[in-house]
Design brief:
2 copies of one chain form a homodimer.
Chain A: H1 9-27, H2 32-48, H3 50-66, H4 71-77, H5 81-96, E1 104-109, E2 115-122, E3 125-130, H6 135-146, E4 150-154, H7 160-176, E5 184-186, H8 193-199, E6 207-211, H9 214-223, E7 236-240, H10 246-258, E8 267-273, H11 274-279, H12 281-291, E9 295-298, H13 300-305, E10 310-311, H14 314-317, E11 325-331, H15 334-344, E12 349-353, H16 357-366, E13 371-376, E14 393-395, E15 403-405, E16 411-422
Parallel strand pairs in A: 3-4, 3-6, 4-5, 7-8, 7-12, 8-11, 9-10, 9-11, 12-13
Antiparallel strand pairs in A: 1-2, 2-16, 14-15
Helix pairs in contact in A: 1-8, 2-5, 2-6, 2-7, 3-7, 5-6, 6-7, 10-12
């Protein structure tokens, strides 16, 4: 392994795809319990090879320090004992999930006697492009194996040695369970041209899932000739309705904004019904947020009631701070709140706090979002919280999968028709 | 209306998308019975305006004749009384279908008490690009209205006047039912730049569906910055297994190849197990096909048993003849048949004729195809035959929708979480 392999990138990428495709074709005949056994073997390999993982990781950390990576980035890169345990645990949990493959989604008999079934099947070969966290290597591989797919993994160059060592554990686990290690391919070059080549392989790779910052995702979308499911970060809203329960509104606003700020399901803008400005509820909530160190950026109406807020400009409504900053706006009614979210939101997760059935119904029907919440924190928008098991991300697309994506979302279906000689 | 509008294409296209988006937003609050009433009003408009439709159609036919269109194309373009009746009938049938919007796909309660629902909702704004048949205008508009979407229609220039007249009926029907006529937008310029502009409107148009020849679809995929669902024509196979029932094999091969040749679900290659070559079944079937005027192109093994067959070359295995031509190959076993289909097929529709449960199971599991058939003709791969009502096409993609697509496939879902103050 080297960071600059002396290879023809085009044929290298073609080889990865063809190896993955051949392995995926064989996997369709493998029962679920064998795929699960492979996942348990992978978890075992990760634990057994902890030392090897940590010495590979040390190489990345050393290179990262030399390259001047921030301490936050170095922390995300570090494979501690606990993190390796937790990677193995996550793979075991995926093994314990119900097999999505083979589910009969629907089935019925046509008047001519043909029996139709719509059956869940693997997609085929999936390309996952991700940034610094090395645990994505085992998580993504495990979700793809669970759902019967082959996967090509392309991690960040900061984690090259760590990803290589983890991928080796994954391949050894596959071999141990009698499966083809070619099911999991790691792109072993940091040459950026490789991503471009892989994204061109229409018909040989079925789907690309980029995980990371917006610029990574945009670059993938621009280059791709294959389908892409996008996971943009979220500009999430909480709307505090006139009919909101006071304590619920306080708890939800504080939790959605401050419990963890650097994640896509944290709130970025809070909208207050004008009645809550007059009743003092808005002031109470803004006071609590401010006390916790949240920098508030409000429109004029907000600042009339809460002078400590900075002035928001138009850019704030579309901003994903991922930080202890919150945009605040007073709206005249629920329609204005819905229009604001549909105009500035990122269709990720948007919540209403209200005791009114009519307001709740209108909000979930009219807000165009993947996750519409009533009376709970936006922070619940998560595969684990939804009971999907490990998640591959949170899709902000509308096609194929929307919101938190689990193993089931890495499948498609085929129609099976069973006849007895029918012709037209 | 004119074929060369004096407009800024970019702002024209943006205006179509924004008009459609605004209308789609309003439509989410409209109940299903109002959408169905609009469809019935549209059917009525088509019947009432038969004369206007036919005089608009006459303009297209005259221009088509002057431009030297083939008689087949002119025939497809012609709006006879019967065809107008049938367009209206198709719209009425779509009105009669169950409403896909609002279906709860799944729902459950999480341990923390949050009630989760995954609810079917419209996609938003759909762009449909199609070629000469004007009936697609009313069919596609009706399917989009049924599923709660707005649609931008871009038909072929040969049908410009006909499409305009049909779209007018659609808009009048919408108005009659109290809905916004902006729900259905027709691209009124034949400037090809318009398609390119529309395909760039990421975030303003949610999905593009091109319907037509492969070159149209490839051009759309290359230009698109928005998701595309592709409907390539089909290279469909029939595999006659060693354990095939003789009469069933004869009936299915003849029907799949000859009942209608110019359609995507007609068979293009027949694979024969070597035992059927020795038993004489292959010869019997090839004789029947030949008698009906099918030109046969076989591999060497085929020609040993059936000398009248022409020699097939490698190109034949990937060819979609859409004609009275059939490629024939003898395979040693079912594995070779499956490998051949997975290598050369277009993942559209592939059938096995067999009495063996094991062979049938292996075939449907291992052939990577949208529609895997046992003992029935490939010609059943069709939205109407599947009971989906009118179809928007047959997807050869694996994501979002695969195989025949009905109104339900023009929807996505949103997650709705109902809490009582939960925070993390």
């Amino acid at each position: 392994m080297s960071t600059t392999l002396d290879i023809d990138i085009k044929s290298y990428c073609g080889g990865l795809a063809d190896g993955a495709r051949a392995a995926a074709r064989k996997l369709v005949a493998v029962p679920g319990h064998t795929r699960d056994a492979a996942l348990r073997a992978i978890a075992g390999q990760l634990i057994q090879n902890r030392d090897a993982l940590q010495s590979a990781n040390a190489q990345d950390l050393e290179a990262g320090e030399a390259a001047g990576l921030s301490s936050a980035l170095l922390d995300r890169l570090t494979l501690t004992d606990t993190r390796i345990e937790s990677m193995a645990q996550s793979v075991r949990q995926i093994a314990d999930q119900v097999d999505p493959v083979g589910e009969i989604i629907e089935g019925y008999v046509r008047p001519n006697g043909i029996r139709l079934e719509k059956v869940r099947v693997p997609i085929g070969v999936i390309l996952i492009i991700f940034e610094s966290r090395p645990n994505v290597t085992s998580d993504a591989a495990a979700l793809c194996i669970k759902s019967g797919n082959a996967v090509i993994l392309r991690g960040g160059k900061e984690a090259l040695h760590s990803n290589h060592a983890i991928a080796q554990c994954v391949r050894d686990g596959l071999t141990e369970a009698g499966l083809d290690p070619q099911l999991v391919q790691l792109v072993e070059t940091t040459d950026r041209a490789a991503v471009g080549e892989l994204l061109k392989l229409e018909g040989r790779i079925d789907l690309a899932i980029p995980r990371g910052g917006e610029s990574l995702i945009r670059a993938v979308v621009e280059q791709a000739h294959i389908p892409v499911i996008k996971h943009y970060t979220g500009n999430c809203h909480v709307y505090v309705d006139a009919a909101a329960d006071e304590q619920m509104a306080i708890d939800i606003c504080i939790n959605a904004k401050t419990q963890r700020t650097g994640v896509c399901n944290a709130a970025e803008t809070i909208l207050f019904h004008v009645d809550t400005a007059h009743s003092g509820l808005m002031g109470k909530i803004l006071g609590e947020l401010s006390k916790r160190g949240v920098q508030l950026r409000g429109d004029n109406h907000t600042r009339e009631h809460f002078a400590a807020a900075d002035e928001a400009n138009d850019g704030d409504w579309a901003e994903e701070y991922l930080d202890m900053i919150c945009a605040i706006k007073v709206v005249q009614n629920i329609d204005e709140a819905i229009d604001h979210i549909n105009r500035y939101g990122s269709q990720h997760t948007d919540a209403i706090v209200t005791s009114s059935v009519a307001a709740a119904d209108q909000f979930v029907q009219q807000v165009d979002t993947a996750n519409a919440f009533i009376n709970c924190s936006t922070r619940f928008s998560d595969g684990g919280e939804y009971g999907l098991g490990a998640e591959i991300g949170i899709s902000t697309d509308k096609l194929h999968a929307r919101g938190p994506m689990g193993a089931k979302d890495l499948t498609t279906y085929k129609w099976i028709a069973r006849g007895s000689g029918q012709v037209r």
